[in-house]
Write a structure and sequence with these properties.
This protein is of the alpha+beta class and 372 residues long. Helix content is 31%, strand content 22%. It has eight helices and 13 strands. About 2% of the residues have low confidence. InterPro entries: Ig_E-set, IRK_C, K_chnl_inward-rec_Kir, K_chnl_inward-rec_Kir1.1, K_chnl_inward-rec_Kir_cyto, Kir_TM.
Length: 372
């Protein structure tokens, strides 16, 4: 009881006082900013304008969408008004009865704007139309029609690509709140649970991890956010996962693992961030998506395992209870990986010994006199 109270006190009080900075949040967002970027480098974003528009937030994208159409309609409306003004088609010039205008029924800036809108979106009410009187109006009509198709294609394509991005599909992939360390198959493992909330599968799924920590090289160089590969597997491997039900992935803590020299007592004092990645192809759209999450030392529970969550009903169906998705159960676990492997080595050495049943221990009495 005292152990649980002590752990709760450390987690809720001391943990808040020294909250660790994350590079990757629990929902996969990267906590990083770029400073002192040269102005010339910022122009590269406009060279790759398609990716820049796709990465914009919805409020900025809709602002660009509305501005592009309204701006082009108003701009060409000014040009149509200029054509009517130069050709003296406006009522203020009092044209003669036999005067043929460049565009029929343009009486001012408002009617020029309406004609520009009708031309670009191909409404074609039939009231205002271009005549063969002047070639300038014909050229302007062709130019606006071509430019209008380009604007429609770009903006509608950007909206469609934004909606169909697999980033939203990644929201239906969830990881457990905590990672646990316990024995699995006779080995000490770090376990994480991941679930697919949709019935559609992720094709060619691959899962892996990166351990981020600050290291100092033998030359004395300090490397912040040094990355160490962490191999995660399930019982069938770490590629082409059959992701129909929640999976428990695990990392074997052996001599090559960066967790090998950690213990249950020293784990909370460690300074690292474990980032877990899941890559896969969306079955319905064939788009590749990536799901990310991270764990800090306070979120790694030593001596626990996940509660079971898959059962079989009387009707023969498999039922997944997500109430137990992040629920953990305390189990007996060695307090360090080195202790487990030392115990195994001792047992192996004992097995290599032999017992001789004919061996008899006899006592020999020592005498002071020795006969020559």
């Amino acid at each position: 009881m005292f152990k649980h109270l002590q752990k709760w006190f450390v987690t809720h009080f001391l943990g808040h006082s020294r909250r660790r900075a994350r590079l990757v949040s629990k929902d996969g967002r990267c906590n990083i900013e770029f400073g002192n970027v040269e102005a010339q480098s910022r122009l590269i974003f406009f060279v790759d304008i398609w990716t820049t528009v796709l990465d914009l937030k919805w409020r900025y994208k809709m602002t660009i969408f509305i501005t592009a159409f309204l701006g082009s309609w108003f701009f060409f409306g000014l040009l149509w008004y200029a054509v009517a003004y130069i050709h003296k088609d406006l009522p203020e010039f009092h044209p003669s009865a036999n005067h043929t205008p460049c565009v029929e029924h343009i009486n001012g800036l408002t009617s020029a704007f309406l004609f520009s809108l009708e031309t670009q979106v191909t409404i074609g009410y039939g009231f205002r139309c271009v005549t063969e009187q002047c070639g300038t109006a014909i050229f302007l009509l062709i130019f606006q029609s071509i430019l209008g198709v380009i604007i429609n294609s770009f903006m509608c394509g950007a909206i469609l690509a934004k909606i169909s991005r697999p980033k939203k599909r990644a929201k239906t992939i969830t990881f457990s709140k905590n990672a646990v360390i316990s024995k699995r198959g006779g080995k000490l493992c770090l376990l994480i649970r991941v679930a697919n909330l949709r019935k559609s599968l992720l094709i060619g799924s691959h899962i892996y991890g990166k351990l981020l920590k600050t290291t100092i090289t033998p030359e004395g160089e300090t490397i912040i956010l040094d990355q160490i590969n962490i191999n995660f597997v399930v019982d069938a491997g770490n590629e082409n996962l059959f992701f129909i039900s929640p999976l428990t992935i695990y990392h074997v803590i052996d001599h090559t693992s960066p967790f090998f020299h950690m213990a249950a007592e020293t784990l909370p004092q460690q300074d690292f961030e474990l980032v877990v990645f899941l890559d896969g192809t969306v079955e319905s759209t064939s788009a590749t998506c990536q799901v990310r999450t991270s764990y800090v030392p306070e979120e790694v529970l030593w001596g626990y395992r996940f509660a079971p969550m898959v059962s079989k009903t009387k009707e023969g169906k498999y039922r997944v209870d997500f109430h137990n998705f992040s629920k953990t159960v305390e189990v007996e676990t060695p307090h360090c990986a080195m202790c487990l492997y030392n115990e195994k080595d001792a047992q192996a050495r004992m097995k290599r010994g032999y017992d001789n049943p004919n061996f008899i221990l006899s006592e020999v009495s020592e005498t002071d006199d020795t006969k020559m």
